[in-house]
Write a structure and sequence with these properties.
Layout (H helix, E strand, L loop, with lengths): L22 E3 L13 E6 L2 E6 L10 H14 L5 E6 L4 E3 L5 H6 L2 H19 L4 E6 L2 E3 L1 H4 L6 E4 L4 E3 L13 H4 L7 H8 L3 E2 L1 H5 L5 E2 L5 H9 L4 H11 L15 H7 L5 H11 L2 H10 L4 H14 L4 H17 L3 H10 L17 H8 L20
Parallel strand pairs: 1-2, 3-4, 4-6, 5-7, 6-8, 7-9, 8-11
Antiparallel strand pairs: 2-3, 9-10
Helix pairs in contact: 1-3, 3-14, 6-13, 11-12
């Protein structure tokens, strides 16, 4: 399942001036599609709740939804003490963002609008003054990761499925993936970013992607108690009371492979990673190689460099780098072919160009990280000197 798997019907079709206001409500929504608005907002005193209301599309976000969420968060930035982000339905928190529209139209300006708006929201979440809590109950991929992982608290459940599978569609783990993935234990983040490996339930917590693990049946009670809190200390106390300890339950799904992951994915090049996996020869190594061979060779090389650079950047600087990467990919890369093979024709047989790691041109890779043809850069509302590349 990919970042765009649920967005066939989603389109970046409405210009900003036609986007409707967020539907403001006084009580939390529990019914699917209970309101025509794609984003619902609740205000409970000094607290706010944002609910993604697109369950039939696994709550995948399009430009309209990103703008609505951003507007609500800006409106509450100095008025609320706590904001909860959740979704309608049991299958997905947010299965991704609408990138199919970009590849189908080959509209670079559309790409710029989508990515700049989405990354602006990611940056806002990362620096948000109110306590930000995301209930990542269900599928959480791509754009859904960007809506959650940069916030202070991320609550996983037994239904959570986390993945960043962008290399399979000729892209890279964006929405700040270059910032948060290299900050996971050892080389786990690079492994997740290159392979698109899926973490489920408790393992999302054990990996450090989620800050807490709570059974889904307890989320309504958790929400009510969080909305009744009066301080940050009380918020932490409530979360700790509901959450299972990280070392509880069975062992982390990748615990036995972490030594190999750290050694093999610590190689200085992607080709080096392949060679170490080939030399190991274990069943796990062979399975990992088989998975990597399905990915865009260009995306693999871009992703490794992205995470290496991102490990030394703050979030905003990383998002500026990723904006360059995203727009360059929209101009000319494996991105369009990957979406065609996985989401449009669904033949599962992308024709990568180049088809092998050996043919990936280092000069072309450097170009992806360089300035855009029109010299445009991602700009944030409160840009400071640290956020420049």
């Amino acid at each position: 399942m990919l970042r765009t798997i649920a967005v066939r019907a989603a389109g970046l079709t409405r210009p900003a001036h036609l986007v409707p206001n967020v539907c403001r409500r006084t009580m939390s929504s529990t019914g699917a599609d209970s309101n025509s608005s794609l984003v619902l907002t609740d205000e409970v005193g000094s607290k706010g709740v944002i609910t993604l209301n697109r369950p039939k599309a696994l709550n995948a976000i399009n430009l309209e939804m990103v703008q609505l969420i951003y507007d609500a968060m800006k409106r509450w930035e100095n008025a609320k003490s706590l904001v909860i982000v959740k979704s309608v339905g049991e299958k997905a928190f947010c299965a991704g963002g609408d990138v199919r529209a970009i590849t189908e139209t080959s509209n670079v300006e559309l790409a710029k609008k989508f990515f700049s708006t989405e990354y602006g929201l990611n940056a806002l979440i990362g620096a948000y003054r109110p306590t930000y809590i995301a209930f990542i109950d269900g599928i959480t991929m791509g754009g859904g990761v960007g809506l959650s992982v940069h916030g202070k608290y991320r609550i996983a459940t037994e239904r959570t499925m986390f993945a960043m599978p962008e290399t399979a569609i000729g892209l890279f783990p964006d929405v700040g993936g270059g910032y948060f993935l290299p900050r996971l234990e050892g080389k786990l983040g690079l492994y997740l970013g290159l392979t698109g490996y899926r973490l489920k339930g408790r393992d999302v917590h054990k990996a450090g992607v989620a800050t807490h693990y709570v059974e889904s049946k307890n989320l309504p009670a958790l929400e009510q108690q969080l909305l009744a809190t009066t301080s940050g200390t009380e918020v932490e106390s409530v979360l700790d009371r509901f959450s299972e300890k990280k070392d509880a339950g069975v062992e982390f799904v990748l615990a036995k492979q972490m030594k190999q992951i750290n050694e093999f994915f610590g190689a200085p090049t992607v080709e080096g990673i392949f060679k170490k996996l080939e030399a190991d020869g274990s069943e796990w190594a062979q399975g990992t190689l088989k998975l990597l061979h399905k990915m865009s060779p260009t995306s693999l090389v871009v992703t490794q460099k992205q995470l290496e650079l991102g490990s030394k950047m703050d979030l905003k600087t990383c998002l500026k780098m990723e904006y360059r990467l995203a727009v360059h990919h929209a101009i000319e890369s494996d991105f369009k072919e990957g979406v065609r093979a996985m989401l449009v024709d669904r033949d599962q047989s992308p024709r990568w160009n180049p088809a092998t790691l050996a043919d990936v041109d280092p000069v072309r890779i450097e170009k992806f990280f360089g300035p855009l043809p029109d010299s445009s850069e991602l700009q944030f509302e409160d840009d400071g000197p640290k956020a420049s590349l």
